[in-house]
Amino acid sequence: MAWQDEVTSMFSGRKDGKLWNDLYRSNPVTFEEHLFQSRRDFTVNYVLSHSTPASTIIDVGCGAAPVVSRLLANDRDCIGLDYSFDMLRFSRDVLNQSQQHNTALLQADCQALPFPDNHFDIIVCLGVISYIQDYQPALKELYRIIKPDGTLIISFRNTYNPVLFDPIIGLKTFVKWLLRKHEDDNSVGRFLKFKAVRSDIEREGFEYLAHTSIGMGPFRWNGKPIFSHRRSIKFDRAIDRFLKSVHLHSSLGKWLSDVSLWIYRKPNNNL
């Protein structure tokens, strides 16, 4: 099965499409809800503080419009784009419920975006590159459509998080490393190594601005949670506060966090 077909199936209304939609529907109860709502909130706050109502904004891989709907509610125009028709249907339902009927929602492949060069001030791209077998063409497209001095906010799930928070997975990973049995993971929805992704992003010409880490934990034993969702959320917040208090959030957070979120700009070569 081609990765496009796998993504279409994965984000269909019959499978994970509804689950992704429901993640944003209420106050977080599960660790995953906490994780992805935190990612949404950081992104929305960053965009609001670095844009004006005149800014051109697009959410590439908008899902059920958690970011788009919040930006629209705060007087920002934002186009939502997704590969999955079912996710766009969820998006339309969310926007209709909040009376945001006229928002542009587009179905497209992020490896061939239907926009002219240098078009957007801000691009949001959360979690998308993990679902593309070869994400380099998508990075090229993001670079092409963003304006000089424009901002890219991009995230993915960190491959080191389950290794460091699950002793059994960590041991298995270490043994594979010793035996040289490690193989590159090209599966759809995979976790990624932040150093490799950062190198790939900067290869396209983007300049690094900032990084944030979201989701310290949860603690697991052979893939099974050790603590309740509520306690895992409390541990995450406590670890997050501690790392910030000792000024290690930026350095250690890159290794520990579940969601790795990076902010880049496209340099203005005309200056």
TrEMBL record:
Q: Which SUPFAM superfamilies match?
A: S-adenosyl-L-methionine-dependent methyltransferases
InterPro entries xrefs: Methyltransf_11, SAM-dependent_MTases_sf
The segment(s) forming the Methyltransferase type domain are 58-154
Q: A Pfam family matched by this chain, by name? A: Methyltransf_11
Q: Which UniProt keywords apply?
A: Methyltransferase, Transferase, Ubiquinone
Q: What is this protein called?
A: Ubiquinone/menaquinone biosynthesis C-methylase UbiE
GO molecular function annotation = S-adenosylmethionine-dependent methyltransferase activity
| Record flagged with keyword Translocase | no
The organism encoding this protein is Marinimicrobium koreense
What GO biological process terms does the UniProt entry carry, in alphabetical order? methylation
Domain of life, source organism: Bacteria
Q: Which CDD domains match?
A: AdoMet_MTases
